[in-house]
Amino acid sequence: MRQSLETPLSKVKRGPNRAQYDAETAFRIIDNTLMCHVGQSKNGQVFVTPTCHWREGEYFYWHGHAKARNIKAPIDDAEKVCINLCQLDGLVLARSAMHHSVNYRSVTLFGVPELIEDTEEKVRQFKIFLDKVSPGRWDALRPINDIEIKATGLLRIKIEEASIKVRAEPPVDDPDDNDWPVWAGVVPLQQQWGPLEQDPIQTELFDTPTPPDAF
Amino acid sequence: MRQSLETPLSKVKRGPNRAQYDAETAFRIIDNTLMCHVGQSKNGQVFVTPTCHWREGEYFYWHGHAKARNIKAPIDDAEKVCINLCQLDGLVLARSAMHHSVNYRSVTLFGVPELIEDTEEKVRQFKIFLDKVSPGRWDALRPINDIEIKATGLLRIKIEEASIKVRAEPPVDDPDDNDWPVWAGVVPLQQQWGPLEQDPIQTELFDTPTPPDAF
Ligand SMILES: Cc1cc2nc3c(=O)[nH]c(=O)nc-3n(C[C@H](O)[C@H](O)[C@H](O)COP(=O)(O)OP(=O)(O)OC[C@H]3O[C@@H](n4cnc5c(N)ncnc54)[C@H](O)[C@@H]3O)c2cc1C
Ligand SMILES: Cc1cc2nc3c(=O)[nH]c(=O)nc-3n(C[C@H](O)[C@H](O)[C@H](O)COP(=O)(O)OP(=O)(O)OC[C@H]3O[C@@H](n4cnc5c(N)ncnc54)[C@H](O)[C@@H]3O)c2cc1C
Ligand code: HEM
Ligand code: HEM
To answer: Mind telling me which PANTHER family this protein's record contains (chains A, B) (predicted)?
Structure first.
């Protein structure tokens, strides 16, 4: 059986035809994306923080300075955060202004973050994070030390309350407008990793890194 | 004199060396970016909604269905929303795990949204929005009508409380690690508009649209 992530909070109201709730599809979009936007509040004010993320199994992880607001605030005062991550896939040009849109893959997650404090588990997660960003790189790095581990705050939420919205199609105009004489269609957005820029202070040549499979 | 957007709320605490507060720089990043993440709350729950935006002068605009939560909630119950928009420019690969990072241009805005209800002003803004997305296209479209104007909710905030964070440099490792034998540097992210995909139900050839200068 496929696990559904739908709950009253994550149920899509506007554009429900674009909604999906299965965990596997959410995992795929999460893994193909490098960054998310974490929404939380402090003293009644909402904050949105762009942050890199990764996933292991049913858990979604992010990190920051142990004392940063985007790490400490939802722990000091337990709160259900809302996180969105999305990929912009193209621009949808319709025959009428209102039916213009964008193609996208988008995931919204809800959960009360949990702070990971166990040193071994933290290091295990940092390696998973690095493997997402550049597979195989961890073992070539200067080993991590205790000061760095302590300085880093690590949070996770379980992926169990979430929604997916995907748009991947040509414009959908009012049928009466289909013959309107203007170009209509999709302008796809392309993303790729460009030529490596080695640190100018590095003079030796080393094996080049593998870029990630995520953007 | 340059206008500063710094306030106690928008003052960057972590990584203040990467902070800027001048309006012109914020305008440039806003104009070069197609989408933002709007953070607001309803009944005590934070929501983060990916949304397209545009700018005219000192005002930042977004739209949605007049009854959508991301339009109605901050109006029904006036609230200072937090909006972030950012461009991921590259992956920063350091010699130690902890100094890995990303290059980026990021703007965070705060403001209490204002609902624009005047029909003429709404249409004027929709044209500005379309000119951002595809310059010169508005006049070729099937003209907008009253039902569409009424169905669309238009919000704006004044750009007066905001912060910019930019990272655009090679890795910054601990000086002791600079000779560590592993490739270090930046993997730049490239974005471009791909070949146009005309709506398959359209059989005639028309002048092709101009893609936007924003991603
Ligand atoms: C693409 C991207 C990925 C990132 N990934 C990570 C990550 O994985 N881990 C991490 O720790 N940090 C990451 N950052 C930086 C992150 O956005 C925050 O700046 C940082 O986490 C400090 O958060 P804080 O809540 O403690 O900020 P504070 O410094 O306490 O925030 C105070 C004020 O500073 C301003 N501010 C904070 N962050 C930003 C921003 N990004 N842009 C504009 N204004 C800002 C806001 O006005 C905010 O109200 C990333 C940034 C970008 C753009
Ligand atoms: C790149 C991008 C640009 C967009 N630009 C616009 C725009 O300019 N104007 C506009 O009206 N809409 C835009 N959308 C859609 C927008 O994100 C919302 O889906 C829509 O505005 C409805 O918002 P709401 O708060 O009324 O949602 P509701 O349907 O009331 O939200 C209920 C629940 O549905 C889920 N949900 C809602 N939106 C999303 C989402 N995007 N991804 C995953 N789950 C979601 C959440 O779990 C949420 O709690 C854009 C989406 C993307 C990805
Ligand atoms: C300028 C005139 C425009 C008007 C009057 C208009 C109107 C609307 C309305 C009413 C909705 C809500 C649909 C619903 O929730 O039922 C909507 C949604 C949306 N609009 Fe627009 N729009 C305009 C232009 C654009 C442009 C130029 C873009 C982007 C290029 C855009 C992107 C979107 C997106 C992404 C959605 C969400 C639809 C979805 O999630 O599938 N709109 N618009
Ligand atoms: C895996 C081991 C890692 C550790 C221990 C670690 C630790 C930290 C710490 C402590 C901070 C806070 C700095 C501060 O606010 O003073 C931070 C910030 C950050 N980290 Fe990491 N990090 C790791 C890997 C990564 C990776 C792989 C990336 C992305 C590719 C990354 C991206 C960032 C970014 C973008 C910031 C914000 C810095 C800025 O805004 O300039 N980190 N990290």
So the answer is: 5-NITROIMIDAZOLE ANTIBIOTICS RESISTANCE PROTEIN, NIMA-FAMILY-RELATED PROTEIN-RELATED, FLAVIN-NUCLEOTIDE-BINDING PROTEIN
